[in-house]
Amino acid sequence: MSAMTELSGGPALPQERRLVTEIPGPRSRELMARKQAAVADGVGTVMPVFAQAAGGGVLVDVDGNSLIDFGSGIAVTGVGNSAEAVVRRATEQLNRFTHTCAMVAPYEGYVEVCEELARLTPGDHAKKSVLVNSGAEAVENAVKIARYHTGRQAVVVFEHGYHGRTNLTMALTAKSMPYKHGFGPFAPEVYRVPMAYPYRWLTGPEHCAEEAAAQVIEHITKEVGPENTAAILVEPLLGEGGFIEPARGFLPRVARFAREHGIVFVADEIQSGFCRTGQWFACEDEGLVPDLITTAKGIAGGMPLAAVTGRAEIMDAAHVGGLGGTYGGNPVACAAALGAIETMRELDLPARARRIGEVMKPRLRALAEKYPLIGEVRGRGAMLAVELVRPGTTEPDAAATAAVAAACHNAGLLVLTCGTYGNVLRFLPPLVIGEDLLNEGLDVLEEALAQV
Ligand SMILES: *Cc1c(COP(=O)(O)O)cnc(C)c1O
User: Ligand 1 pocket: which residues have CB below 6 Å?
Assistant: First the structure.
């Protein structure tokens, strides 16, 4: 067990891959039958095992199988599944009170989280925040705030973007199946523009940033009108759309255009934020200072919390009572967030994420050399992916991707897929995973690739 694992806190689970039944085992199969009878079919399951415990880099199922976790509950448990400081602070808060409603009788934890967000997010201007319950709710609030501040309606979003599953955020999300299909009509005044996706840029990756930015600017100028545009909303490193790293230079160009036209530039860092990419926030990589930033997932060690943080004069635009919600900034979730942030600082998790990238990326590149099924290796820090294609082409191979993921699952490695074409395997290990386990996970991946 490596030192990092011991520091992770949480249940003292042996940090090992251990299969004691087939996957799924009998207890999981029993529970799955109950799930099918009681839970709506629309709620899918990536891996058909039921969780019993989790911590460090493993998830233990109800049959006693211990799986290596390369998913972190979709980029949530960066600090681990029950980090010591998260459990301690949330428990203390549970014993004091569970709820008063921040709009009825506020409490210190809410303010403290907003103070931390002002310190941690890029830019040294005056900042304020509003706390809500989910990523989608944060994005909705960012749009509300940008519209109020500018007095404009149009929102510009990107190909391959993902922003959530509520009505407005479905409209903002690019991919139809499974996120939007059958759920329309969608909110109006949403305009989609090209993303600088180097691997699939027709004239080649070297032209991607400049050409894509020119297309975005042309589209907004001619078809939307900058004077009608409230916000440009973008993930600085795309999540569900396939872990696409926008070509370097693209985002600074788009941000400059936004600034020149009084358009609010919003970075959706819900997946890429809180140390995941090797910095506190992914937009730091190109020195971007967004006007507003949305956060969720990694913020509170697994407790539901999300935020919009931004320039005080924009955040203050809306009238009193215009923002909020019954549970937004729940005191237990705020206490958990303060514990998670304490853990990120104490363990220097940005450095830990960079180290994970240093271990994983060369090994993924070596796999790409060996298996022409891998078209591209990309990502930063502990937010990495491989895009799978038919060998010798760039044609997406979703079937092979599903087969590799299934082979990993059967061998005790939890991996997730993503991508507009369903052909991306993504790797989001907890930032506190031990290095032995990380390497063993990659061994499992290699065996799965060899099988497929
Ligand atoms: C997950 C995600 C969301 C939505 O967050 P929820 O908490 O699921 O509503 C929005 N934007 C990005 C980039 C995400 O990854």
Answer: 134-136, 139, 162-164, 235, 239-240, 268, 270-271, 296
